[in-house]
Structure formats: C-alpha cells, structure tokens
C-alpha cells in the first residue's frame, strides 16, 4: 500500500466533526454523528463532500439564500428547535420509565398482600380518580401505568425469577442450611408443597426464603414429596451434605417412620448430624443414633478445632465407644 493511500485510510478512520460544517451546511454533531438541523437526518460518514451534497440537493434552494447574520439567526433558531425536541423525547422516555417502574412496584405489593391479579385494575381506577381531584394536569401519567391482570402476572413472574436468581447466588456460599416443608391445598382443592429454606454463610449472614412452591398432581406419597424436594435443592445448587435439618407439618406422608419423606432422607447417604427439632417425626433417639455413628469424626473435628470435650475421654463412656 502506498504512503498516500495509507494516509487517506488513516484520515478516514479518524474523521471528526468540524465546526465549520454548522455554518456551511447546517449540520451539528449529535451523539457522534453529523445531524442536519433542517430535516434531522443523520449522515453516517462525516465527510465534507457528504454533508455538502446533502445540503445542496435537499435544502440549498430554500436555505442557500441566507448569508451573514441572517444565516446565523436561522441556525440559532434551528438549534433551539432541535434542543426542544430532544428535551421532549427525553421527558417522554422518563415518563415511560416511571410508569413501568410504578407497574412493577404495585404488582409487587399485590403479590406480597396475597391479592388476586385483578386488583391491579381496581388500584389504577383509584389512582385516576385521585389524580382527577389533586393533579388533573398529570392524569396522563397514571393512565400510562399498565396494571391489567395479565400484566400484573407477568411482573410478578419476572420479580420472582429475579429473587430466585439472587437466592441461588447466596446459596453458593451457604456453609449449612435447613428446610421446612408444608403440604396444603389451595382454594381449588389442589395439593401444593411449599419448601422454605434457611441458610448461613461464613460471615454468619442468615438468609430465609421460600425456595419453591410445587403443585402436586394425583397422590402425594412420600416418594413424590422427596422427588420434589430433591429437584428443588438441585435446581438451587444446594448439596445434600450441607443440609442440617428438616422440619415438616407432621403429616404421615412427611413423618412416617418407615415410608415417610424424612425416613427417605435419613436413609440416604449423609455426612453430618441432623439438628434436633421439636416436631413429631424427629425423636431424640434418632439424633443420638446419628451422633453415635459419627462419634469418631466428631471427636476429630473438635480436636482439630482445639475444643476439649471431657466426655469423649471419660473411661466409663469409652466402654460404649
């Protein structure tokens, strides 16, 4: 490549807007592109030839007659019109963003209060009536808030997905966690399994959230409940070896000694001691049984942590070991 071609290429790649183009061709720099003050059209390549051709072919006949102070006056007026237009569109975007945010805020309040999605339309009617009395000039702002039943459902779904994503991120740092399960029926007589989680990290920050709401179709056997729990923990990225306790509502399918959900948990491979909970399914004997099976590992853990427990070295108790 010749030196002259290389120079032309470099110049082309670093073209910048020149102030003289405003007075010569009625162009200004707007968001990095030359923009015509007259028709608001933008030119992709900022070259003198391109801007000159645009002005002469589209506006030369009407605006070419202005010279000196008259030309400067027309340019100033066109600049004011462009600034006003930009301000208008900026305000429109601002109002639209505020209406969208308000839609999410109201939808979240509806969800937290446990109200039906159709409450959104009722609340919007209330807003419009209040606006008519207090600030009628701003009624259009409330009109733009979308609170139909379908919209509220979509907003709540988006918010729940975001909350679930935050919970997954926190769950990665859990050093231990426990779950609570409650099986009940909704107003349509369909079984629902609510799974709550509480976890703690190395900074002793405790997080408690609703992990999942699982619709149960057909029978709700212990196996069905266990599969729903397993799936929820897997989707949240929660390992079984960090599970320290389970609390249930005491139903037979949950607390059965042989075929209940908790029995299927306990029979699975484990690596920790279940904490004692004052509910029917978990007796002190089960806790002591687990403690006894892990007695050597527990003693090693305490010794490594410089924690002395005299009972482990008691000769009378060592006979039981």
From TrEMBL:
InterPro entries in the cross-refs: SPIN-DOC_Znf-C2H2
Domain SPIN-DOC-like zinc-finger as annotated: residue spans: 18-75
Pfam families in UniProt: zf-C2H2_12 (PF18658)
Protein name per UniProt: SPIN-DOC-like zinc-finger domain-containing protein
